[in-house]
Amino acid sequence: MRRLALALFFALLACPSPAQPPNEGFADLAESALPAVVNISTTRGPQAVEVGPGVPGFPHGTPFDEFFEEFMGPRGLISPPVGPATSLGSGFVVDAEQGYVVTNAHVVRDADEIRVTFHDDTTVEAQVVGADDKTDIAVLKVPSEDKALQALAFGDSRTMRVGDWVLAIGNPFGLGGSVTAGIISARARDVGVGPYDDFLQTDAAINRGNSGGPVLSMDGQVVGVSTAIFSPSGGSIGIGFATPAEIAAPVVQQLLDYGHTRRGWIGVKVQSVDADMAASFGLDSARGALVAEVTPGGPAEAAGLKQGDIIVSFGGQAVGAMRDLPRMVAGAQIGAEATVVYWRDGAQYAAQVTLAELEKAEASGLLAERPTAAGLPEGGSAVLADLGVTVADITPTLRARYSLPEGLGGVVVTALDPARPLLATVLAEGDVVVEIARTPVTTAAQAASLVADARQAAPGAPVLLLISRQGAARFVMVRP
């Protein structure tokens, strides 16, 4: 028995730990991939720098401000140009014959000159083929006639699992081609960078200058493009984010085909549905995407969708969370019909929506903010005591004070109960309450009455408000 136990012990020691790298290491993979990875440096023209306000390191509104203005000039003074600005990044070749290089859009944004340096220290100038700020992907073109290039291919990032090994290659701090290894720490991360956030998170060291470099699977395919890091210091702490290939590859192809992206669009602004909102709308669980606004003249309006609908399915795919819908719509075929299933007034409905092109809608001005049409009530105010909110009728004075658009109706929030600090997470002074419990609001007195009715109908339950903040509509839940 003792011999068996010892045999098992030594057998376990001989087994590789799941945290150990593959037996063959990473050298072969790095050697084959490095020639396709490039360093990118950009130059922007002389930059005017704003001086002030105040002395750096001192709070504004102190006597140091006056000293600074007396000897250095008024706040907001623009200094003479201080010389060209430069930035560093990374990229990788995706088409060796044509000389196409993928990087991040922020690496080359507003650049006057772009230089690409290869692994053999050859440097060439590059031109931007196209860039997409929403996914932070750009495509460059470099001369390919006099130099044999090596390319990397996109893989299927959907097959990557948490714990899989990956290799990141880039140009950290301008040091040149550097290789780091790690694992996929998480999938589908939403870090608030853009509307299509779906990042792969990795603990492979990613630093400044790695932006745009490839994240490779163990078979040498690009499964992500290094895009961002989470770091209090600006250096790697093992939390890096890469745009997955399933998002990057279609964007790259569209930039190559059209010079810009072509995304589907149905003309709604949506927000998340939490448990309180689901209960308020009579939905069985927190799922779907709540329609906060419907764009006038857009496909959704033509199909009959309204503000307050909850989209639970698009094109036959369930919308589990709000963040799923923008990606589904963006990837759908422009001009085709898609079935949209939505929840309204306690029942489920379906509509056929014909997809339009997002970029054309942006260019035509359809996505410009539009105020809600309503009258201009005058006069009173009311304290919504149960909610800790003070609202007032929108007078010309308040409209000017809070820079409210002409034609925007409702009641304006003028104060929040300081004893309820959590209120500030959902409301702010200057917000306009447009609806209370799905009923349009025109006066402060009516707002107080609607809150009282909602409280009586469901004591202790949160109250649903539709607010407008800086031209954007949003549903919020406020607890009494």
Main sheet overview: 7 strands, antiparallel
Residue share in helices? 10-25%
Structural class: alpha+beta
Reading side by side through the largest sheet, how are the strands ordered?
5-4-1-2-3-7-6
The shape is elongated
Number of H/I helices: 11
CATH class of the domain at 157-258, named Mainly Beta
Model description:
The strands form five sheets. Strands 5-4-1-2-3-7-6 form a seven-stranded antiparallel beta sheet. Strands 22, 23, 24, 25, 26, 27 and 28 form a seven-stranded antiparallel beta sheet that branches. Among the domains are: 157-258, Beta Barrel (Thrombin, subunit H), CATH 2.40.10.10; 264-364, Pdz3 Domain (Roll), CATH 2.30.42.10; 381-478, PDZ domain (Pdz3 Domain, Roll). The chain is elongated and about 75 Å long. With 480 residues, the chain is α+β, with helices and mostly antiparallel strands. The longest helix is centred in the middle third of the chain and has 14 residues, at 245-258. The chain has helices at 2-14, 27-33, 63-72, 105-108, 245-258, 275-281, 299-303, 324-330, 358-364, 396-401, 444-457, and strands spanning 37-46, 84-95, 100-103, 113-117, 123-125, 127-132, 137-141, 165-170, 178-189, 199-202, 214-216, 222-229, 240-244, 264-265, 268-271, 289-294, 310-314, 317-318, 337-344, 347-354, 356-357, 381-384, 389-393, 411-416, 432-436, 439-440, 463-469, 472-478.
